[in-house]
């Protein structure tokens, strides 16, 4: 019985290793695909680009969040397939950084973009946070989340902010919000429900360009937004069901729940955020 268990563990570990190698190949293929289909503008010599002060910092938050989610989700996947958890965490971190740095290199050859060292730093920060998060005891108590709602501004610059729904959730920063969710039940001995939490969100509104809005478009005030809203952890809420644990794959999405928004230049607004 013991020998069969050892063999089974060895088989799952080898499968996880093969799966990881397949991920590397898929990431390389994705880089090639991006170079042909996304970067269709004229390519030029490699150059840098300082975009630190663009889009109210949303671009940098997005980079960090993407690296964080890739690291966390892939680590969970490799561990579930049988890889040693420590190895899964480190390999997921390295994979996220390699893929995202590859995208930055492509940006460096693009006439419409440029290599951004600040993007690389944001990617590294998000990956490290995901690495630390997966190895800590507060994985469910503190979570980073994201949601998107139509801003109504993308139609003013569809080339930049997206011409359809599938593009706008990625390109229209005005509709994106990034959240830090805290679930107190994980940090107290009291019988406080672990699935109830509070989220603090950050977003922007009125940004029709990176640093300024182009002349000729409607005059819209560029402002930052801060939200405070209720949140739920679906994994904890449905943990007693057979399918509840699978919700962790979509747990990074913040559900619209009652909250309050503070926008520069206007008073607080109640709503679902």
Draw up the topology in text.
Blueprint: H1 2-37, H2 58-80, H3 85-109, H4 117-134, E1 142-148, H5 158-161, H6 165-171, E2 176-182, E3 196-205, E4 223-232, H7 234-237, E5 258-263, E6 269-272
Helix pairs in contact: 1-3, 2-3, 2-4, 3-4
Describe this structure as you would to a colleague.
- By secondary structure, the chain is of the alpha+beta class.
- Helix content is 43%, strand content 16%.
- The protein contains 7 helices and 6 strands, in the order H-H-H-H-E-H-H-E-E-E-H-E-E.
- The protein has helices at 2-37, 58-80, 85-109, 117-134, 158-161, 165-171, 234-237, and strands at residues 142-148, 176-182, 196-205, 223-232, 258-263, 269-272.
- Strands 1-2-3-4-5-6 form a 6-stranded antiparallel β-sheet.
- Strand 5 and strand 6 form a beta hairpin.
- Helix 2 (58-80) packs antiparallel against helix 3 (85-109), helix 2 (58-80) packs parallel to helix 4 (117-134) and helix 3 packs antiparallel against helix 4 (117-134).
- The longest helix has 36 residues, at 2-37.
- The chain is flat, with a radius of gyration of 21 Å.
- It starts with a helix and ends with a strand.
- Mean pLDDT is 89; it is low at 2-8.
């Amino acid at each position: 019985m013991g020998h069969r268990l050892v063999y089974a563990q060895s088989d799952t570990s080898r499968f996880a290793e093969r799966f990881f190698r397949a991920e590397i190949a898929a990431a390389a293929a994705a880089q090639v695909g991006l170079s042909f289909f996304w970067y269709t503008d004229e390519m030029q010599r490699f150059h840098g680009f300082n975009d630190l002060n663009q889009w109210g910092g949303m671009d940098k938050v997005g980079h960090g969040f993407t690296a964080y989610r890739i690291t966390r989700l892939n680590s969970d996947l490799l561990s579930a397939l049988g890889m040693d958890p420590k190895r899964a965490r480190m390999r997921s971190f390295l994979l996220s950084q390699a893929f995202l740095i590859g995208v930055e290199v492509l940006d460096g050859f693009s006439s419409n973009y440029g290599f951004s060292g600040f993007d690389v730093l944001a990617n590294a920060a998000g990956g490290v946070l995901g690495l630390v998060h997966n190895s800590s005891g507060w994985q469910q108590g503190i979570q980073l989340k994201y949601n998107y709602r139509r801003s109504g501004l993308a139609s003013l610059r569809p080339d930049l902010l997206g011409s359809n729904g599938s593009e706008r959730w990625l390109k229209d920063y005005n509709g994106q919000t990034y959240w830090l969710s805290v679930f107190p039940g994980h940090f107290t001995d009291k019988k406080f429900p672990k699935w109830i939490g509070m989220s603090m969100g950050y977003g922007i509104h009125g940004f029709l360009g990176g640093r300024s809005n182009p002349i000729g478009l409607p005059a819209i005030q560029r402002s930052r937004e801060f939200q405070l809203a209720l949140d739920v952890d679906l994994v904890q809420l449905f943990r007693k069901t057979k399918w509840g644990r699978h919700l962790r794959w979509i747990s990074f999405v913040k559900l619209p729940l009652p909250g309050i928004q503070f926008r520069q230049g206007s008073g607080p607004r109640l709503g679902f955020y």
